[in-house]
Amino acid sequence: MSLLSAFSSKENNKKTSDQLKNFLDDFSIEVMPRTASKIESFKEILPQNTRVYIAHIEGVPIEEMVETAKRISGEGFAVMPHFPARIIKDQNTLEDWINRYQNEAGIEQALLLAGGVTNPHGDYTSSMQLVETELFEKYNFKHLHFAGHPEGNKDIDPDSSNKNIDQALSWKQKFKERTDINLALTTQFCFEASPVIEWADSLIKNGIDIPVHIGVAGPAKLQTLIKFSIACGVGPSLRVLQKRAKDVKKLLLPFEPNDFLETLAEHKKANPSFNITNVHFFPLGGINVNASWIKNATNN
């Protein structure tokens, strides 16, 4: 048995609070075609109707994305593929993608984001430009999610001011007020609860009432999480991992999201109107490991 498996077995005895179980209701999880292909049956590891995001990484053919969506949707899951604006050539390409997803996999929801590409492949640089084509309304999409940035994003605001992010949020709020499509903000994964709570509260103060689906890194080795965090531009909450890394005894053990999620869940219980409504998992330590953690957290 590997160290990860052995430690996870011990952790399965850890009790989770009722508020955390409630907070995990209607969670979602993210996969890529490559990682999804390694899962023999999603029905064996996830509750039926779980929303499964499919990340579209630059270079992955749309055919592979659609085939993955078709397979997971066929197993009874709500599939939400990524539409990264900067890798979409033009409106014809966007409409082709939408047609393929709908006709072959019955898709009616999408995560719209700029995408981490330095040089855009075509006409689009932002998720808002995708919305302005009105194609998602034309094809009767039921849910559109946008990327959320609790710790800012230097690709969007190189000066760390949040000016552009705030302007984009204002635009999305106005879109919410004029459309029947259900909107949400799905965030990058974070590790520190207090700044996330402050950020979420600041949205409400600024008139943004779009629900938030908080990004959470699933259980993984600490080195793996630090590597992905740096690559994905995770901000100040990275210090939680760095602090743990100083303890040699903990360095080789998996990092689990219990403390982060328990704090958010307690805050939600005390503040029922709290705008973080759902949890979205990034299974950086593997889909099976993440699914096992969720099952344990919700069943014990």
UniProtKB/TrEMBL annotation:
<dbReference type="GO" id="GO:0016491">
    <property type="term" value="F:oxidoreductase activity"/>
</dbReference>
<dbReference type="InterPro" id="IPR029041">
    <property type="entry name" value="FAD-linked_oxidoreductase-like"/>
</dbReference>
<protein>
    <submittedName>
        <fullName>Methylenetetrahydrofolate reductase</fullName>
    </submittedName>
</protein>
<keyword id="KW-0560">Oxidoreductase</keyword>
